[in-house]
């Protein structure tokens, strides 16, 4: 199990990444750049949260691969739903 120092460091990184989303839309970035940066920051934050706060980093690799496969399937369902709406 990770110690308090690790959790504090991850919390600070998440705080900085959350502030990064604000920076993209406050300063003069193109809309596509701001959206791409925001999505990238959101993915990084999701990986950090899943790895450390949900303790996936301590699980055996097959469990991590199963979670990755489930996430990929959710992505496919989202793309299929978006395609069927149009």
TrEMBL record:
InterPro entries in alphabetical order: Cyt_c_oxidase_su4_prok
Positions of transmembrane segments: 7-25, 31-53, 65-85
Gene Ontology cellular-component annotations: plasma membrane
Keyword Heme in annotation: no
Cell compartments where the protein resides: Cell membrane
Name of protein: Cytochrome C oxidase subunit IV
Membrane topology note: Multi-pass membrane protein
This protein's UniProt keywords: Cell membrane, Membrane, Transmembrane, Transmembrane helix
Pfam families (UniProt xref): COX4_pro (PF03626)
Species the sequence originates in: Natronobacterium gregoryi (strain ATCC 43098 / DSM 3393 / CCM 3738 / CIP 104747 / IAM 13177 / JCM 8860 / NBRC 102187 / NCIMB 2189 / SP2)
Keyword Membrane: yes
């Amino acid at each position: 199990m990770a110690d308090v120092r690790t959790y504090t460091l991850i919390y600070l990184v998440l705080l900085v990444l959350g502030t990064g989303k604000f920076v993209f839309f406050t300063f003069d970035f193109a809309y596509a750049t701001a959206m791409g940066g925001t999505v990238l920051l959101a993915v990084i934050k999701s990986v950090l949260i899943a790895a450390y706060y949900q303790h996936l980093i301590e699980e055996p690799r097959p469990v991590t691969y199963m979670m990755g496969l489930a996430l990929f399937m959710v992505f496919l369902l989202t793309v299929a739903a978006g395609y069927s709406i149009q």
